[in-house]
């Protein structure tokens, strides 16, 4: 038990830059407290002490704001960051190395007892803040669920799901940002630079606007130079060159038009 607790503390220190010491993690991290109490509740559940398991789960919810059904299976190395409002259902399975942020629901869509109603998360899955993963399907290893996404279908390994309803984004990752993320072991809040096509389109528009501001500034400079030359009558102004950077076709491809 103590070895597993040490592992949980080490993982929090590795993944959360706000964690300053082991003592701080042990005393001030509700995600850690919820997971430890869940292990007690799950042990009672497995031994058939169902009421006691539910009662320990209820106490954990009261103390931490994180509700984990005692029947849920959670592997080692899971990190619940902040955690307030997290709900994990009875038949949910969470693989090792997963990171779950506040407001996440691993819920079910079926009312049939004895069936797999809640999702299974593979290894090293990141579920962003406010995401809703609903149903008895699998989320593959190293997948990412974007913040506030609503996922009701399986997510392939290594893919990213964003939006409501969630759509699957191909793994096209910016090299520099992914290098930093790999050092940390995860991508904060389940969002990477190239996750969302709409975000890419917005970035393209912003870059274009910034380029236009620069071109306008250069034109004003050229106009000022021309005005000074005309007044002096003894110089020929240099031509003002403008280069068009706007790529409408590329932006249309990004938003799927």
- What is the radius of gyration? 26 Å
The number of E-state strands comes to 15
Name the CATH superfamily classification of the largest domain.
Hexapeptide repeat proteins
Taken in chain order, the helices and strands follow as HHHHEEEEEEEEEEEEEEEHHH
CATH topology of the largest domain: UDP N-Acetylglucosamine Acyltransferase, domain 1
Assign the CATH architecture of the largest domain. Answer: 3 Solenoid
Total domains: 2
Could you give the order of strands across the largest sheet? 3-6-9-12-14-15
Question: Count of DSSP helices?
Answer: 7
General description of the model:
With 257 residues, the chain is an alpha/beta fold. It has 2 domains: 2-194, Hexapeptide repeat proteins (UDP N-Acetylglucosamine Acyltransferase, domain 1, 3 Solenoid); 198-254. The protein is 41% helix and 13% strand. It has helices spanning 2-15, 22-28, 30-46, 50-64, 175-184, 197-232, 248-254; strands spanning 67-68, 73-74, 79-80, 87-88, 93-94, 99-100, 105-107, 120-121, 126-127, 132-134, 138-139, 144-145, 150-151, 160-162, 167-169. It has a 6-stranded mixed beta sheet with strand order 3-6-9-12-14-15. α3 runs antiparallel to α4 (50-64). Mean pLDDT is 81; it is low at 173-177.
